[in-house]
Amino acid sequence: MLCKGVKRKREEEEEQEPASQDWWLEEASSSPSPQAEASPAPLPPSSLFNLSIFKLHHGLRRGEPDLRHLVLVVNTLRRIQSSMALEPSAPEPPSPAPVSPLPVVPDAPMCTSVSTLLDDLSHIEGLSDTQTAFPEDAPLSRPPEPGLDPGRPAPLGSLEILLEDGLEGLFDDIDTSMYDCELWPNLKTDSGETEDKTQGPGLDVSELDYLMDVLVGTQTL
Amino acid sequence: MGEDADARKINHSFLRDHSYVTEADIISTVEFNHTGELLATGDKGGRVVIFQREPESKNEPHTQGEYNVYSTFQSHEPEFDYLKSLEIEEKINKIKWLPQQNAAHSLLSTNDKTIKLWKVTERDKRPEGYNLKDEEGKLKDLSTVTSLQVPVLKPMDLMVEVSPRRIFANGHTYHINSISVNSDCETYMSADDLRINLWHLAITDRSFNIVDIKPANMEDLTEVITASEFHPHHCNLFVYSSSKGSLRLCDMRASALCDKHSKLFEEPEDPSNRSFFSEIISSVSDVKFSHSGRFMLTRDYLTVKVWDLNMETKPIETYQVHDYLRSKLCSLYENDCIFDKFECAWNGSDSVIMTGAYNNFFRMFDRNTKRDVTLEASRESSKPRAILKPRRVCVGGKRRKDDISVDSLDFTKKILHTAWHPAENIIAIAATNNLYIFQDKVNSEMH
User: Fold this and answer.
1) pLDDT value for A196
2) pLDDT value of position A220
3) A113 and chain B: CB distance < 8 Å anywhere?
4) Do the Cβ atoms of B259 and A26 come within 8 Å?
5) Partner-chain residue, chosen from A4, A68, A135, that has the shortest CB–CB distance to B159
6) CB contact under 8 A, A1 and B437
7) What ipTM does this complex have?
8) Is A191 exposed, middle or buried (0-12, 13-18, 19+ CB in 10 A)?
9) How far is CA B404 from CA A200, B359, B410, B416, in A?
């Protein structure tokens, strides 16, 4: 693309000229340490729980969820639920959840196993990433909280009840490495683009038709 | 990438109303090249803008070292993944420059799924005096051609040409968060939430998977990769950070698949600060090796930390960016600000570190003197060539004039992307859709 560099309008870069040597340290002062002011009262665990459920629900509704956001919210949910489970006698405030439209079941049993809730959604049965088998003896997670199966995250008993659509797959397995060239030989996942051409926008119509036929079942693999 | 792009169209695309921010114009990454002569920005609309530093001239001293637009191009377009029925955003997540090896400049730009290698070249001459074509390229009437001439190269106005030379597609199932060029100048890596791939710059149809933390059962997923970078000198070493606040240094010589780290850098949780949000605020949003290669800099929600590669148990330095937010974590969780990913940067001599914060503030910490400062990037508070005034956030008690109270901070104005010139005291700050470049004129050499 030929273009002449022209300075952007309304987006002038600003250069600042300091007077002193340590320009970035002028009148430097350490950030004030937090005073002992009255912080707003933290939300009770049940409200935080509802908020987290709402976030999870909202995050899953997105086309392609932000995995980091999802993982952090789920881990926070586990912490909250563990804490709520450890204090069964703590009075649950009757105030309605500020953000969640879902019913609260604070005393739901924690016995529902993870596998029914965080179901690994494999679109094709037998889908697995065998070539990158994760070595079990080098876990990345920190040691789990006591009382739980080692290596398994804490079960989220109330999730199934609280999430409206039953939660088909919390962490969708969107790995499509199985769909590489082998299965559909006429679909090149790496289109043989030349180095000077920009890659096409996607599959062309005939390839798309073939793919649809396979999915519908009129074609056998 | 047509060669006849209309210059007027390019200019018009940058005109915008002051009163609102077009989402496409939000800057999503900023990167100096290895000499600092060029500065690239990427935005949510998939565009890349390259700025070039004007050479210093004695005739116009006030324009010394100013950065002006050098080139603009559309790097990525929105795409549609037919298999998953999902749109792939064109937002540029990262730009990394390749070391310059000839007259051309090259950079890698990436969105969530596809990395592209762009070559930036200059043309300042054009051939004139063709025998069969006239100046506009039209064929001449042959009867008017009476003699043979040799075309000559004549100078012309500088034209900057950008062309895509490689497209590295289909390597990632999850969203790419980092790319890093190896010191061998032949390979680079790209990291998504669960995997890291190694590519050769000349080969687009295959890559090697070097890290895979995807569990066999997705229901066991508790941790994702948040950032990664190659060591600046040792081409076999790289680091990646996780959402649980750990750093893993890996050696590619040890094995093909670097799932087993060589070193694990992790700081135990402070029991006095433990809360429901401990994990979220410990999630590392950026990791950068120092220029010397001896240290690593990490950014989590409230702090920046310096790690010595020889000490895995804890960071050697921790700096509070905005500790006054510690008591507000609940609200920040509610409005999702707690998930914001701030970047961090070293200066050229590794003596000062910088990172962004809210209210268009950014912070700098001098590692030697232990002094720090808060500055603001905004049109209202800075006039061109004025001196930046340090800012202060007060949390109650004595409040000085011009202090900002914590409750007045604007959390929509966040400085997520910052960059420091590799050799001089020049910094680039991205504040939403605006780019600020600050320069130390008096003392431009590193100390």
Assistant:
1) 41
2) 54
3) no
4) no
5) A4
6) no
7) 0.88
8) middle
9) 51, 10, 10, 20
